[in-house]
Design brief:
single chain; about 240 residues; mainly beta; Immunoglobulin-like; 2 domains; 6-stranded mixed beta sheet; 5-stranded antiparallel beta sheet; 2 helices; about 15% helix; about 40% strand; elongated
């Protein structure tokens, strides 16, 4: 689009350039008013183009670049002005983003780490996090991985402390990937449920890890002693009879 104000003067011409190479011209006093110049990869829909806009068809990523619109007023002053803007041709991902977590449940005080990856696209997608349908304003890491074909993939990491989260015992986490206002997709939602703390830990002991390795031999020895004592009693009673 090219908007302008001539302040009462008549329009003389509109000229469109890509990287300062003219490809479209509109001169209302000529017949036909539009003229297209051959420029590689640029195909103009003449019927849909006019003095305010130019429509390109069969666009691919090679047409990403700077475009200029030059407006000229008619005689006697022929005032001319030119403005430029960048156009980015987007090639969105073929799949939705994917989200994974380092756990399936949590207790208060847990450090929760969740990753969201968006498949390759051009350019790389922006990632937004949602926890219990509330948008998270920031996260700890966002990486972009570039590929030789020009595409890029995004990876974002969300880190949360369980004690600072919602009072409800369930966390619903998802991510959303977007490229400008052209493409947007959301991941599946992962559900993390709060679990009760280990009762043994509340008593100052734990039956997991190294503690289990210490307790098991002792329990086995006690069972063997009881079994041996029972066998000895039976043997003694049989001998007396």
């Amino acid at each position: 689009m090219c908007t302008y104000e001539l302040e009462g003067a008549q329009l003389y011409s509109i000229r469109w350039y890509r990287n300062m190479i003219e490809f479209y011209r509109y001169v209302p006093k000529e017949s036909p008013a539009t003229k297209v110049f051959p420029v590689a990869e640029i195909k103009v829909d003449v019927a849909a183009s006019d003095q305010n806009r130019v429509v390109l068809t069969e666009v691919d990523r090679t047409l990403t670049g700077e475009y200029q619109c030059e407006v000229s007023a008619d005689a006697p002053l022929f005032h001319t002005d030119i403005k430029a803007a960048e156009m980015v041709v987007v090639e969105p991902p073929l799949l939705s983003p994917n989200v994974t977590a380092d756990r399936v449940s949590y207790v208060g005080g847990d450090h929760i780490r969740v990753n969201c990856s968006s498949p390759p696209s051009l350019p790389a997608a922006n990632i937004t996090w949602f926890v219990n349908e509330q948008m998270v304003p920031g996260f700890t890491a966002n990486h972009v991985f570039n590929f030789s074909n020009g595409f890029a993939s995004s990876l974002a990491t969300l880190e949360l402390e369980a004690t600072a989260l919602s009072p409800v015992p369930t966390l619903m986490i998802r991510c959303e990937a977007s490229i400008f206002d052209i493409w947007k997709a959301t991941s599946h939602t992962i559900v993390l449920r709060e679990r009760s703390a280990n009762p043994a830990s509340a008593l100052g002991r734990s039956f997991t890890g190294a503690a289990t390795e210490t307790c098991l031999p002792t329990i086995v020895m006690l069972l063997l002693q009881i079994l041996l004592q029972f066998l000895m009693q039976n043997y003694t009673e049989t001998s007396i009879r």
